[in-house]
Amino acid sequence: MNVGSLCRRKPVTATPFDELAAVAQLMREEHVGCVIVVEPGVREGTFRPVGVVTDRDIVVAVLAKGIDPKTLKVSDVMSREIVVAFEEESVGAALRKMRNIGVRRLPVVTGPHELIGVISLDDIIDQLVGELEDAAGSIRSEQVIEHAVRP
């Protein structure tokens, strides 16, 4: 399975010039902990990720320091050195990237770095749990069938 088949295709985005307080409100409304910061891509209607802002960034870098979020733009807080996952990349490769840099989410891009989605650790765990349930079900079915055939 590749990242493109598992990622959420409509990531919540913002621009570097958006007000941070408005982005925090957007995160609340959309029930997300991460907003991908974008700039226009090379092709019309596309966007390329240039940063990430998480709910933790807002708490640790702004609120915990007593800074008023209404005075800041997204560019004041966003992580600029982002790591992305390519849509063709394996889920295992994305997990290794997440582990190496200590994040729970990665923007997902096409070959020319156009944003198409975001993949989260939660998405991957949900998929893995489903596969483990299938494996456990296979074992249970095998036992039931064997018991019926060989009483």
Characteristic key phrases:
alpha/beta, 151 residues, three-stranded mixed β-sheet, single chain, 5 helices, 6 strands, 20% strand
Brief overview:
41% of the residues lie in helices and 20% in strands. With 151 residues, the protein is α/β, with parallel strands linked by helices. The longest helix has 29 residues.
Secondary structure layout:
Blueprint lengths: L2 H4 L6 E2 L5 H11 L3 E7 L6 E8 H7 L23 E2 L4 H11 L3 E5 L5 E6 H29 L2
Parallel strand pairs: 1-2, 4-5
Antiparallel strand pairs: 2-3, 5-6
Mean pLDDT: 90
Biggest pleated-sheet summary: 3 strands, mixed
Rg result: 20 Å
Low-confidence stretches: none
Order of helices and strands: HEHEEHEHEEH
Query: Into which percentage range does the β-strand content fall?
Result: 15-25%
Distance between the termini: 39 Å
Q: How many β-strand stretches?
A: 6
Q: Tell me, briefly, the overall form.
A: elongated
Class of secondary structure makeup = alpha/beta
Helix content: 40-55%
Main sheet: which strands, in order across?
Answer: 1-2-3
- Structure annotation, total helices: 5
Describe the structure.
By secondary structure, the protein is α/β, with parallel strands linked by helices. The chain has five helices and six strands. It has a three-stranded mixed beta sheet with strand order 1-2-3. It has a three-stranded mixed beta sheet with strand order 4-5-6. The longest helix has 29 residues, at 121-149. It is elongated, with a radius of gyration of 20 Å.
